C-alpha cells in the first residue's frame, strides 16, 4: 500500500457483535485525528443490498477498514460485486482488537501492511 | 461471480451525508462532529467526513446531503455538473444533533430512498476461497436463500429470506465456507478457519445425521406422527407440543433459533421444497460434470 489509504469505519449498527466502547473509541479517535474519512452504518446491510457505495469504496484503491473479521469483510464486498484489492487493503478487527490498537493502526501515517 | 442483476434484493441507494468543513464553511468543533457522527450512524446513514488530508471515495449515483456551518448561515445551492447526483445542502450553524437528524430524515423521506435498518441484516456470506461448489447448502436450505449463478456456481440470492439468527446452513457446509458475520463465534463469524474448526463443523453435521439420517427426514417423521395424532385427536396443542419437542432437539444440535424452526412449513411443503432444492443442486452438478467432460474431450482432441 503506497498511496494514502482511504479510511473506512463500520459502525455495525444493527447488532451488538462489536463492543460498543471499541466502536465509540475508534470513531472518536478518527474524529480527533483531523483527517478525512468514510463511515458507514453497517457493511453487512450494504452488502446484502448491493449498495453501489461499496463499489465506490472498493474503487478508491488503497483502503484501511475498521470493522470485524477480515475474511468476513473481504467476502461481504465480493458478494456485492465490489471486490477489494488484496494487496491494497488492510482490515482491522474491532471484535478482537482494542479500540486503541485499531485507532492507532487506522490513524498512523506511512505505508500500511496488509 | 453473479451479476447484480441476478440478485433478488433490489439495488437501493442510500443517502450519503457529507460533513463539510472546506472552503466557505467553518470547522465543526470536535464534540459537535462526534455527536453528529454517532447520531447519523446510529440512524443508519453513511457519512463522509470531508476535511483536508486523506483520501475519500468519489461520488456514485447516491444522493448527497451536505451539512456544514456555512458562512453567513446560508447553505449554498449546489448542483452536479453532470446532472447525475442529487445534492441537498443544509446549514447546521446552531442546530443541535437532534434537529440535524430531523432535517436529514426529512430529505430521505422526500427522496424515497432506502429506509435504514428496516431489515436486520442476517444472511450467509460465502468464502469462495474455501467453497468447493458441492451444493449441500442449496439442497439444505428450505427458504430459497441459495441459488445457482449462470456459471453454475453457488450463490446467495435471497438474503432477506434467511431466518434471523439461524446459522444452520453453515453447519452443513463441509468446508466451513459459510459465514454469518454477525454470529457470536468462529469460524461462522468469519474468524480464520483452523483444521480443528473444519472438523468441529463436520462433527456437528455428523451428529445431526446420526440422530435422524437427515434432519429434514427426522422432522418429517416426527411431524407425521404429530399429524396422525392431530388427525385422531383433533387437538392442535398436542400436535404443536410434539413438533416443539422434536424442534428443541434440533435447536440444541444446530443452534437454530426456535422462531426459525417454528416457521418451517408443513411436512408436505418441506418435502416439496427439499426435493426442489435438491433437484436444482443436482442439475447444476450434472451440468458442471458435462462441461468438465466436454473440456476433457476437447483437450483430448487437441492433444
Ligand atoms: S462487516 Fe462486521 S462490523 Fe460491519 S456490520 Fe458486518 S458484522 Fe458488523
Ligand atoms: S455447502 Fe459449502 S462448499 Fe458446498 S456449495 Fe455450499 S458454501 Fe460451497
Task: Briefly summarize what is shown.
With 114 residues, chain A is an alpha/beta fold.
Structural notes for this entry:
The complex is a heterodimer of chains A (114) and B (303). Chain A is α/β, with parallel strands linked by helices. Chain A has five helices and four strands. Chain A has one domain (6-107). In chain A, helix 1 (20-32) runs parallel beside helix 5 (99-107). The model of chain A has no long low-confidence stretch (mean pLDDT 92). By secondary structure, chain B is of the alpha/beta class. In chain B, a hairpin with a 5-residue loop joins strand 7 and strand 8. Mean pLDDT of chain B is 79; it is low at 1-7, 206-213 and 229-236. Classes of the chains: A alpha/beta (114), B alpha/beta (303). Strand 2 (37-40) of chain A pairs antiparallel with strand 3 of chain B. The structure holds iron/sulfur cluster (2 copies). One iron/sulfur cluster is lined by residues 126, 131-137, 154, 173, 175, 177-178 of chain B.
In terms of DSSP E residues, the strand content of chain B is 5-15%
Overall SS class of chain B: alpha/beta
Question: Uncertain spans of chain B, ≥5 residues at pLDDT below 50?
Answer: 1-7, 206-213, 229-236
Terminal-residue CA separation of chain A: 8 Å
- Number of distinct helices of chain A: 5
Tell me about the largest β-sheet of chain B. Answer: 5 strands, mixed
Distinct small molecules:
iron/sulfur cluster
How far the N terminus sits from the C terminus of chain B, by CA atoms, comes to 31 Å
Overall number of structural domains of chain A: 1
Shape of chain B: elongated
Amino acid at each position: 500500500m503506497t498511496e494514502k489509504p482511504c479510511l473506512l469505519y463500520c459502525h455495525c449498527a444493527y447488532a451488538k457483535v462489536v463492543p460498543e466502547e471499541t466502536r465509540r473509541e475508534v470513531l472518536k479517535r478518527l474524529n480527533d485525528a483531523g483527517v478525512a474519512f468514510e463511515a458507514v452504518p453497517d457493511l453487512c446491510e450494504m452488502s446484502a443490498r448491493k449498495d453501489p457505495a461499496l463499489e465506490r469504496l472498493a474503487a478508491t484503491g488503497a483502503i484501511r477498514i475498521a470493522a470485524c473479521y477480515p475474511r468476513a469483510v473481504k467476502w461481504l464486498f465480493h458478494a456485492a460485486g465490489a471486490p477489494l484489492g488484496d494487496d491494497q487493503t488492510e482490515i482491522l478487527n474491532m471484535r478482537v482488537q482494542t479500540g486503541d490498537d485499531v485507532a492507532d493502526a487506522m490513524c498512523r501515517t506511512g505505508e500500511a501492511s496488509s | 461471480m453473479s451479476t447484480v442483476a441476478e440478485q433478488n434484493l433490489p439495488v437501493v441507494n442510500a443517502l450519503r451525508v457529507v460533513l463539510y468543513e472546506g472552503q466557505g464553511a467553518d470547522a465543526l468543533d470536535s464534540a459537535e462532529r462526534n455527536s453528529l457522527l454517532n447520531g447519523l450512524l446510529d440512524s443508519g446513514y453513511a457519512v463522509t467526513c470531508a476535511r483536508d488530508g486523506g483520501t475519500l471515495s468519489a461520488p456514485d449515483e447516491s444522493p448527497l446531503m451536505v451539512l456544514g456551518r456555512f458562512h453567513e448561515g446560508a447553505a449554498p445551492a449546489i448542483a452536479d455538473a453532470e446532472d447525475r447526483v442529487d445534492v441537498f445542502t443544509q446549514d447546521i450553524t446552531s442546530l443541535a444533533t437532534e434537529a440535524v437528524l430531523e432535517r436529514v430524515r426529512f430529505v430521505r423521506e422526500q427522496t424515497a430512498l432506502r429506509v435504514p435498518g428496516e431489515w436486520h441484516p442476517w444472511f450467509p456470506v460465502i468464502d469462495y476461497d474455501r467453497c468447493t461448489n458441492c451444493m449441500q447448502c442449496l439442497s439444505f436450505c428450505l427458504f430459497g436463500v441459495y441459488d445457482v449463478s449462470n456459471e453454475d456456481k453457488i450463490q446467495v440470492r435471497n438474503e432477506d429470506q434467511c431466518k434471523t439468527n439461524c446459522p444452520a446452513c453453515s453447519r452443513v457446509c463441509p468446508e466451513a465456507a459459510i459465514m454469518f458475520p454477525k454470529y457470536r463465534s468462529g469460524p461462522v463469524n468469519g474468524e480464520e478457519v483452523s483444521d480443528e474448526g473444519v472438523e468441529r463443523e463436520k462433527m456437528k453435521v455428523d451428529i445431526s445425521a446420526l440422530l435422524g439420517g437427515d434432519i429434514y427426514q427426522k422432522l418429517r417423521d416426527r411431524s407425521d406422527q404429530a399429524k396422525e395424532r392431530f388427525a385422531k385427536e383433533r387437538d392442535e396443542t398436542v400436535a404443536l407440543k410434539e413438533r416443539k419437542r422434536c424442534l428443541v432437539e434440533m435447536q440444541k444440535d444446530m443452534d437454530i433459533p426456535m422462531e426459525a424452526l417454528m416457521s418451517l412449513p408443513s411436512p408436505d411443503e418441506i418435502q416439496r421444497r427439499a426435493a426442489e432444492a435438491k433437484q436444482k443442486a443436482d442439475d447444476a452438478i450434472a451440468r458442471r460434470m458435462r462441461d468438465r467432460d466436454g473440456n476433457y474431450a476437447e483437450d483430448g482432441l487437441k492433444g
